[in-house]
Amino acid sequence: MSGLGFTVYPAIDILGGEVVRLRQGDYQQVTRYEGHPAEVAGRLCDAGARFLHVVDLDAARSGQSENERAVRSIVETAASYGAAVQVGGGIRTREAIARWLEAGVARVVIGTAVRNVELVAEWAQEFGGHRLVAGLDGRKGRLAVSGWLEETEWSIFDLARELAKVGLVQALVTDVERDGTGEGPNLDLALGVQQSGLFAITSGGIGSIDDVVAARRAGLAGAVIGKALHDGRIHLGELFQRLAQEEEGGAC
């Protein structure tokens, strides 16, 4: 596969209208952060972010969005900086996809519904496969859905191959057991998906700038940064400077 380039996706997870992070997808292990979601988006864009990753955690769990106004405010804020937004969480119907795309979202992440390959194929034909991202979240290579509360017998790699056949281009690959831990991303999992035919964005476990650089060096399409960014362990300005050095070949 020829590359798409590498994109950094600062994450804004929303639960009950607040910016939060979960540990390993556990709704009982919540860290809350100060600031309205739109304010957080503005700070990230001020620091150089050009693509935000937004998750509606209420919708991911129940399928019902309680945070649409907050997400729309993020989209408007990002647009004022010339930045884009991809949104995930509870997007399980054609109507949900259409609503977010009409709201100005660049891409939507399909999680729980991604198992229905025939349905995803219809959506890809209608909306364009480049605007749908396969949310491949799992434990030990098996797909987890419904806000990671339900584990399945689906192989993430087999599913990636089927989704590539019906026109999807990218996958957001999350190792649930590493999410929010800062222990480093599961690059092997993401690379396995990429070898199956979808450009892979790694998510879960990134705790340092070195982790992001490792993902880029591995040839992945991007990385989502969440808790480490909001906790101050990663500063976007420093990260983008390091990545620029990598691009120029100035770092070993």
Could you describe the 3D structure shown?
With 252 residues, this protein is α/β, with parallel strands linked by helices. The protein has one domain (7-247): Alpha-Beta Barrel (TIM Barrel). The chain is 37% helix and 28% strand. It has helices at residues 37-46, 57-62, 68-80, 94-102, 117-127, 156-165, 187-195, 209-217, 227-230, 236-248; strands spanning 7-15, 18-23, 26-33, 51-56, 84-88, 107-110, 132-139, 142-145, 150-155, 170-175, 199-203, 222-225. Strands 1-4-5-6-7-10-11-12 form an 8-stranded parallel barrel, surrounded by 7 helices. Helix 7 (187-195) links the parallel strand 10 and strand 11 (199-203). Helix 1 runs parallel beside helix 3 (68-80) and helix 8 (209-217) packs parallel to helix 10. The longest helix has 13 residues, at 68-80. This is 1-(5-phosphoribosyl)-5-[(5-phosphoribosylamino)methylideneamino] imidazole-4-carboxamide isomerase. It is found in: Cytoplasm. Its EC number is 5.3.1.16. GO terms for molecular function: 1-(5-phosphoribosyl)-5-[(5-phosphoribosylamino)methylideneamino]imidazole-4-carboxamide isomerase activity. One of its GO terms (biological process) is L-histidine biosynthetic process.
